[in-house]
Specification:
single chain, 4-stranded antiparallel sheet, two-stranded parallel ribbon, 121 residues, alpha+beta, globular, C8orf32 fold
């Protein structure tokens, strides 16, 4: 599936739900910003395992950011473009993302911790 098709499909199915005190990452169509990013990647790469591999191989990135309103947030970067559950469309630059500060890309060890090692290799 193309990145544009993936975002369109996720947007049609998306149901925002805050994780609460424990930040749980999943590839479902219900959740918060990290879940949105994972759901888009799952569709681009054809499955959860393939999306995990793409993140670990650094074919895609999830950024930890502070929004223009001061909230902590996650943004997906893929092929030099950016998307999140706030903008719901791909942007060719970081400037279109309504982000005040780009902190860091989630590093591989943290991705393994958040996503779990199963079905990656």
């Amino acid at each position: 599936m193309t990145p544009n098709q993936a975002v369109k499909e996720v947007n049609q199915l998306w149901d925002y739900k805050s994780d609460g005190p424990i930040d749980d990452w999943s590839f479902t169509t219900k959740g918060d910003c990290e879940d949105y990013a994972l759901s888009v990647l799952k569709r681009i790469f054809g499955g959860s395992s393939e999306a995990k591999r793409a993140l670990l191989k650094q074919d895609a990135y999830i950024w930890y950011v502070t929004t223009d309103k001061g909230d902590k947030h996650a943004v997906l970067e893929y092929n030099g473009r950016y998307v999140c559950n706030r903008t719901k469309e791909w942007h060719p630059t970081k400037e279109g993302m309504r982000v005040k500060e780009w902190h860091w890309r989630f590093p591989r060890p943290l991705l393994l911790l958040k996503l779990g090692p199963s079905e990656i290799f």
